[in-house]
Amino acid sequence: MEPILELSGLSKVYPGGLKALDGVDLTIRKGEIFALLGPNGAGKTTLIGAVCGLVRPTSGMIRAFGHDMARDWRKARSRIALVPQELSTDMFEPVHRAVSYSRGLFGLAPDRARIEEILRSLSLWEKRDERIMALSGGMKRRVLIAKALAHEPDLLFLDEPTAGVDVELRKGMWAIIDEMRSRGVTIILTTHYIEEAEMMADRVGIINRGRLLMVDEKDAMMARLGRTEAHITLAEARSSLPPQIARFPVELEEGGTSLRYRGGDGTGKGKTEVADLTKALIAAGIDYTGIDTRESSLEDIFVTFLGEEGDAA
């Protein structure tokens, strides 16, 4: 896929020496959903702000849609939209007027049909005449998305789009994001709910202390860094394991009544090794009554990766 956004050596140092971005290189492909993961203060919002013109980089290059953002930012910026983390909008405006005004800010002619389509897609049409201040938190966040979509962007930033939203509304937001992608909108999202990234993202980037530590296809990352964990309930308690079992990455737990396997070594072949382990147990005459196997989630990988990064620092 062709690149829609390219960052090269992007850095931001604030007065006082705080380095919010440290030489970030990143290419975003047209039509993908890219999830940027990192702890608080990692640099996610600063990176978004730099692309959207809210933060001036200290050094580096931003190219969007083939335009250098430092020299030709107007042409590129008109094709970019941001749904911010904070609920910052005119609370006294009716929903319909606020969304229509956002379209006009980018020099587009009024289009009642398009505004209606956006509001209906976000379940806001019935609320179109209500003041934003009267809406629930989830509805206010939908208004922010509607305002961002009003000028028909090709690249959409979602900074914590479901923060403070209940589970039901979060699922609704996921459906909205999926629908936007189906229209060809490229989406970059940050989120604390890592299951969102696991469910929706094509690629994932991990950022910490202003440095982009890893970027990869989500499935490839999970296969390479994931682990398999299995808990095997033994029919009888044991105080030790024979050599043919001890050669696996296992240990006895719960007074010798349970055998825990942790392995895979990042190859994605943990399930095969668990199958070999069960065969070895049978061959050794060790009976078991149950087995529970799980694969690492993206959140497991994220937490482990940041922990290892912290240990190495």
From TrEMBL:
Keywords: ATP-binding, Nucleotide-binding, Transport. Pfam families: ABC_tran. The keyword Transmembrane helix does not apply. CDD domains: ABC_DR_subfamily_A. SMART domains: AAA. Residues 5-234 form the ABC transporter domain. GO terms for molecular function: ATP binding; ATP hydrolysis activity. It comes from the Bacteria. Transmembrane segments: none annotated. InterPro entries: AAA+_ATPase, ABC_transporter-like_ATP-bd, ABC_transporter-like_CS, ABC_transporter_ATP-binding, P-loop_NTPase. This is ABC transporter ATP-binding protein. It comes from Erythrobacter aureus.
